[in-house]
Amino acid sequence: MSAILTLNAGSSSIKFSVYLNSDQVSSGDPVGVAVGQIDGLGPDATLILKHDGRTSETQLGQADHTSGLRAILEAIRPVIGTQTVVGVGHRIVHGGVAQEEPVRLDAALLEELAKLEPLAPLHQPHNLAGIRAAMEAFPDAIQVGCFDTAFHRAHPFVNDTYALPRQYFEEGVRRYGFHGLSYDYVSGHVANTYADLADARMVIAHLGNGASMCCVRGRRSIASSMGFSAVDGLPMGTRTGQLDPSVILYLMDQHGMSTKDISDLIYKKSGLLGMSGISNDMRTLLEGDAADTESAREAVAYFVARVKHEIGALAALGGGIDALVFTGGIGENAWQIREQVCEDLGFLGISLDIEANRRRGTEDIGTGPVKVLVIRTDEERVIARAVSAELRGGAQSDRAAE
Ligand code: ADP
To answer: Are 106 and 236 part of one and the same domain?
Structure first.
């Protein structure tokens, strides 16, 4: 046995999971043994570790990505015992046009990935900082990159382009799509759990604080609601989702807004938060006092309407729909949203078992010809599998295994 660490490095946090991995060539899935995160990177960092049903919290004080990773290594020592960390898997938001699979990371590739920073300025620099820090903290481990864009790289041209002059497409102005690790996991789980859905046409709704939807056919994404950046498509906690670009021109001309102002507006001040004026958190908008306000109801109604919009669009692009799958914090937990989304979709073959939908933990909640499923996503597992496959000799990302 050996240990695998998965990392998701952001600007002020590092999320991690620890897996034990059999060293046998024909081994099964890595086994998750702990999860945790460092919050508040900077002057006042805290490390939280969940292991064996217990949660511990350690104040780290001043910490950056590098010292944070050393602290993680210290914290997980009792968890991994005598095992060593032989592989570190990284969630990377952007792999550009080139990255279609998980890949072994080295200095040259990091330079290539840094060139993509303008495409994802809020995430990519921090993801890469995490990788550099991990290379320093775990010099003997292999480092594997897993990209949120990779699962979408097989989109046909029409679902990959904007109707701009061709030079921009060649330059990389494309519909990349994101949340690929989640779609990879969820579509694999469905295909392996339900024999009749092995090559199904699925519309998957990853509804979390960040939200997108994806059409999967034959285990590959053929279209995504997210495009060039993670702001397109569905409204999210604080992001607008789809927006007529003329609105931005109007705001620049009439309100004198700068690029930074616009970026703050569309990424941080809009979505559920901006519309409701109350919260970015769906649970707050659905439960308690806020749920009675008109602005909360309207924000939720808009969210639901855009999900319906994407179901129609993605079902049409997929040439039909065999399964509608909900995942992400909202998709997995908010029965009210699933109920409202599926209302009046009988014409597509989608109808809900109202009781099953409200019962926590029920996976199969449909009654019509289209399977309606709730699947808990597991992006870390996809990363751990990719590292495990790389350790076994660069086999592919074990898509077949799940
Ligand atoms: P992220 O994109 O940050 O990973 P998550 O997938 O964790 O986000 O989803 C967070 C969202 O899920 C929040 O809007 C939260 O309110 C919502 N959520 C979590 N549990 C519930 C619940 N029981 N009911 C309604 N919404 C929920």
So the answer is: no
Q: What is the pLDDT of residues 37-54, one digit of tens each?
A: 999 999 999 999 999 999
283 lines ligand 1 (CB under 6 A): yes
Give me the domain span that covers residue 295.
193-374
Residue tagged active-site, from 29, 39, 52, 148? 148
**Can you give the pLDDT at residue 341?**
98
Indicate the DSSP class of residue 375: -
Closest CA to 12 of 48, 49, 51, 63: 63
Instruction: Kindly state whether residues 128 and 200 are assigned to the same domain.
Output: no
pLDDT in tens, 251-263: 999 999 999 999 9
Residues 106 and 237 in one domain: no
pLDDT tens track for 286-316: 997 889 999 999 999 999 999 999 999 999 9
Pick left, alpha or beta for residue 236 (phi over 0 → left; psi -120 to 50 → alpha; otherwise beta): beta
- 184 assigned to active site: no
Chain Cα centroid distance, residue 275? 23
